[in-house]
Amino acid sequence: xxxxxxxxELESICSxxxxxxxxIGLVPTMGALHRGHLSLIKRCQQENDLxxxxxxxxxxxxxxxxxxxKYPRDLQGDLEQLSELQPNYVFAPQxxxxxxxxxxxxxxxxxxxxKVMEGQFRPGHFDGVTQIVQxxxxxxxxxxxxxxxxxxxxxxxxxxxxxxxxWPISIIPCExxxxxxxxxxxxxxxxxxxxxxxxxxxxxxxxxxxxxxxSSHTPQELxxxxxxxxxxxxxxxxxxxxxxxxxLHALTDWRHGATACVVAYAGxxxxxxxxxxxx
Length: 279
Ligand code: AMP
Fold this sequence. Notes:
The protein is an alpha/beta fold. It has 11 helices and 9 strands. The strands form 2 sheets. Strands 1-4-3-2-5-6 form a 6-stranded parallel β-sheet, with helices on both faces. The N and C termini lie far apart (39 Å). The relative contact order is 0.14.
């Protein structure tokens, strides 16, 4: 495992790998690694000749300065976890070295996909995400890139970006890893108090219960039921939306892949989760 800080070094290493006709798999992260990230890395290692993990807290995707400032960072701990898996390269650059690259990223017309849910509540978020992912894709030119289904809308956005740019990169969505309580693992969980950690388990409990109610409710009725269930918890629901998995349009009738997407706050910590309701 080799640690790289310089974007130009990463670019030249990847060029050489590509010349050798070896496949590159990329796992972009913001660090504070947990089992969810590790599952992406393991899959990437299985499916590619070389695996590159990136650790970079991209400031342009944070619409809230306090969220950026508080975002957990632990490069040393991350490297210790990675040393067990031994990806070939870990790219952990400094902002000053990355900043000049942002002008090379194109603006992606995301349409509705960028306006609903996270796009509505975190204005500019997906502009930042598409910037940094383009920069990482340009530096590494991966065959496959791995993203967690926890960030459900992000997967759809990145797929649309790659399609728009006509870049030959397979976007591989990976299953959500959860704690024993069902809470989706997230770097932000480190910011929860022990009580909030218990409260946060309600998110997955409510979504699991919602799935059982599909046959007796319309999507809108089920959104209302989910919202009502959150009002009986210590969490504050920001939004619930039951959407088509590709277009992310809110559904009025049930269809294959219908997914409930939820954001709820435990105190000041913003928690994101989703559940497929119709398999
Ligand atoms: P982040 O460091 O939060 O930007 O996440 C980096 C990647 O890991 C993203 O593709 C996330 O969707 C994915 N990820 C985060 N949490 C989980 C999880 N609990 N299970 C699976 N993938 C995850």
